[in-house]
Fold each of these.
Amino acid sequence: MELRPGNLKLRALIAAAPEAIKETIGPMEPIEYENASDEIRAVFDDIKATRGVDDVNNFWKYLANEPRMLAHVWQSLKAIMGEGALDPLTKELIYVAVSITNNCEYCMASHGAAARAKGATEAMMNELYAVVGLANMTNRLVNAYGVPVDEAFKR
């Protein structure tokens, strides 16, 4: 099969790949607290205490299928997403921008909600969407035209 942008068969195969994987290995199931190991419960308890919530969201329940990754991602998130050189709202807005670019509906929704909870207004979110769209467009134009980096922009 020829790899051309307009190749509808190839595009259909790529679009169907996640479903084909699910059919082959079965769908991943969430790990609920009552069915979790002590190792997973410890991470869930930390998430709930840190966030002041009664239950963890779906991301953590699915990630709990690999307890090492669950613990790693939670520790990384706590270390990176809190106060730092960038304030937490800015970090959430960046997360939304990257999630839009990666087409991750779940992350767009969860980090959009987190950004709003940290003070993002609808005007800020709309402007963010415009910047992300513009950046993606101009990035693709630069790549398509093969534009070299100006000397003034290099470090």
Amino acid sequence: MSDNVRVIRLPGDAVGFPGGPGDPFTGFTVGLASETETVAEVQAPFRRLIDAILERLASLGWSEDDPDVGTFGIHLSVEEAVMNAIKHGNQRETDKVVTVTISMTPECFTIVVEDEGTGFDLAAVPCCTDEENLELPSGRGLMLMETFMSSRDYNDPGNCVTLVLDIETKRRQVAERPPEPVEA
């Protein structure tokens, strides 16, 4: 683990990183250790978290290859949610932390990511697929989380997101999706 990242284990994680005795995956908190630290430097510990999540999901029977409910979407969504909390929520402030809580079963994956920022108004974020916003660097992560998860909910004031991928719900959503138009 990088010395630049403070990781505080919450109760239930008796042996370091998630996956200890009893395997609660209750979560951890992390904050930037210096104002000069880059998001790339913070990603190393999250790589370990994501690897642990993917390993556990595989042990529960989740597939990497399933285009609708595969672990690729979970990986991307977790990374987006945590990095958004650090960069946008906490504004990279070194005295603030992000709390991550994870629950997983063979049928459902849930992650709650909460920052100490003031929150945001989801409706105020421009749609990244609108023609006038295609060059803007914002909103893509929000769209990806919504695409890959069966639900994405923010608290009010918007500093905590709960992402859920329920296999049955997502399969139903995919089946109900209108067909993509075919270009001539």
